[in-house]
Amino acid sequence: MHLDHDHTHHGAVSADAHRPDGTRRALRVGLGGPVGSGKTATVAALCRDLRDTLSLAVVTNDIYTREDAEFLLREAVLPPERIQAVETGACPHTAIRDDISANLEAVEELEDTVGPLDLILVESGGDNLTATFSKGLVDAQIFVIDVAGGDDIPRKGGPGVTTADLLVVNKTDLAPYVGSDLGRMARDAAEQRGDLPVVFTSLRSAEGVGPVADWVRERLAAWTTVQVPTG
């Protein structure tokens, strides 16, 4: 069963929070966003920031290739056995929202082979503003957009912008060159998202992923302290 997103209880635990042996499974965080917004760069930066203190792994989604996984492997952000690629063969939305079986198999295999894990990052293939993850697959979703795509993106909304647990506005360093108004984007994002958090950053800078990594740590702290339902 695919569970709906619930943004009122950020510490909520999915119904499948147990592994078969009864232990708590890894926190799963999905990353979506338009093509070129910086999803894979965000995953890579998070891996570099978190790998020394957390046991983590990555699942990437591409339609017909393993390009995103191969990028992460070339960058050596994690050992190869901690990176799994899913070739969806169709619309990437299907593999993260509708028929999530291939992604579930990938995350479960990672836990079986390199676990125990604290965190699994699940990156969507190139998608658009309508992309959301099934709650049967991930426990929280990050949506990445960039200022070069136009400062009207937050105003346009769409489920990715309005309902993601964290909205990341990437490539802020390009704003002066592409005519994007960061103040306008911040106001529009706040109007669309209410109390849900927004991070403005540039992943080109050394500290750019810092606020995103801090948010992931907060989610993980909540995940490891909340009571896991039984029965």
Question: Helix count, per DSSP?
Answer: 9
Biggest β-sheet: strands ordered side by side in the sheet:
3-2-4-1-5-6-7
Approximate shape: globular
Low-confidence residue ranges: 1-15
The end-to-end span amounts to 16 Å
- Count the strands? 7
The share of residues in helices is: 25-40%
Characterise this structure.
It is a single chain. The chain is α/β, with parallel strands linked by helices. 36% of the residues lie in helices and 16% in strands. The chain has nine helices and seven strands; from the N terminus they run βαβαβααββααβααβα. The chain has helices at 39-50, 67-75, 92-98, 101-114, 153-156, 159-163, 175-178, 182-193, 210-225; strands at residues 27-32, 56-62, 83-87, 119-123, 140-146, 166-170, 198-200. It has a seven-stranded parallel sheet, sandwiched between helices. Helix 2 links the parallel strand 2 and strand 3 (83-87). The radius of gyration is 17 Å and the shape is globular. The chain starts with 26 loop residues before the first strand and ends in a 6-residue tail after the last helix.
